[in-house]
Amino acid sequence: MPKPPVPTVPGVTLPPMPAVPTIPAATLPPMPAVPKIPAVTLPPMPAVPAAIPAATMPPMPAIPAVPQVTLPPMPSVPKVTLPPMPAVPKVTLPPMPAIPSVPMPFMAPPPSA
């Protein structure tokens, strides 16, 4: 990316920029040797038993027998006979009186446009 031109001020002359001194490359001392870590020897793993012995459960105690319960016979329910329903008399209503028309100004239809 090109640098933008530096604006100049009339009547002002700047001295030339001094040269930037070159910095010599830094010389690092050689890296010290990494000490070798000796290999760790683990003891042999103990042998896993081939089969785990099955747990021995004590025998289940016998469940006592529940005695049979005999229920007495149900007493017979006497049959109830209902008397016949009395006839309901038919009621004839008089005709409805005509409802007088009440004027409601607030319910007037909107004026036609």
Shape: flat
Terminal CA distance reads 75 Å
Question: Which consecutive residue ranges, at least 5 long each, have pLDDT under 50?
Answer: none
Evaluate the radius of gyration.
Answer: 59 Å
Mean pLDDT: 83
Work out the helix count. Answer: 0
Roughly how much helix do the residues carry, as a percent range? under 10%
Total DSSP E strands = 0
Q: Structural class of the helices, strands and pairings? A: little secondary structure
**Strand residue percentage:** under 5%
Major beta-sheet overview:
none
Structure report:
The chain is flat. The model has no long low-confidence stretch (mean pLDDT 83). It has no helices and no strands. With 113 residues, it is low in regular secondary structure.
What is this structure, in a nutshell?
This protein is largely without helices or strands and about 110 residues long. About 0% of the residues lie in helices and about 0% in strands. About 0% of the residues are buried.
Helices, strands, pairings?
Elements: no helix or strand
Keywords:
single chain; 113 residues; little secondary structure; 0% strand; flat
